Description:
Strand order of the largest sheet: 6-11-10-9-8-7
CATH superfamily of the domain at 153-299: Aldolase class I
Radius of gyration: 24 Å
Mean pLDDT: 91
CATH architecture of the domain at 153-299: Alpha-Beta Barrel
Helix content: 40-55%
Low-confidence stretches: none
Strand content: 15-25%
Number of helices: 13
Number of strands: 12
Shape: elongated
Largest sheet: 6 strands, parallel
Distance between the termini: 57 Å
CATH topology of the domain at 153-299: TIM Barrel
Structural class: alpha/beta
Oligomer: single chain
Amino acid sequence: MNVEVTKVDSGSLDLIVRLALAEDLLSIECISTKKSFLEYALEKIDPSADITSHAVFSDEKEDAGASTRAEALVTAKQTGILSGSGAFTRVYAVVDGGIDCFFEKKDGEAFENGDTIVRLSGRARSILTGERTALNFLAHLSGVATETHRLASVLRHSTVTLLDTRKTLPGLRALEKEAVRHGGGENHRMGLYDMILVKDNHIDSSGSITEAVRRVRSAFGDRYKIEVETRTIAEVREALESGADRIMLDNMPVRIVRRAARIAGGICEIEVSGNITQKRVRRLRGLPIDYVSCGYITHSAPSCDFSLLMKTKK
């Protein structure tokens, strides 16, 4: 019932990266011609808009072979799980196709404080122009993977699977959900188009769980499996009677989750959501449930700390 999400496609990744770069590299030409932010991002990212690096390395020539060359290392300043290598590499491909990125860790691999994550080689000014954007992707996505891994590890020897939600940062959902997989979690639905989830507002607006599910069945038949969000034991019973394929137990105390699981166990899948913390996951892992879904692993995961240091050579 969970969505099988493939790797982020190259076209989507390019758009995400270009929009991020355009925040730093909005050229004077773009401003003077009153082009929209999106138009500029799609047409041409102008690295010369990094006025500091282009002034400091003003002796660099357009021919990469004749330019000031540099090597740079990105190192970890904490432990974690890596994610975001694709976005990192794409940043430099857009800024300067002559920059080489050699990753010493793969997405999904653990790293320790002091580990070298990636080695860069190319124009000094281009490395610096792409530095912050590339590190932003790496830090945030590795943070998502790391926090996911922290919770997924608690569930490692249980039958419960950790899921993400749609509580993602705008524009970064595909990358964040990929980071969840790198951390050992699984993806819930990707959007509003690939899975039926009847939530509290659907229920309240239609009058009941029974009526909301009836309308869904009327519209789609058996095309989609149906998950129903429940808030009480009475709603759990009604969701079962309506033929739900999965019941979400939303913000229920553990003692109520245990009771609901006894009622619904073996009839349909059970997902627990709301206020999911490491402590709460430890209390849930022994119960007869199938999934725990958690929003904060994407919207509030602490970023990992990386640094980039460069040594210029002639």
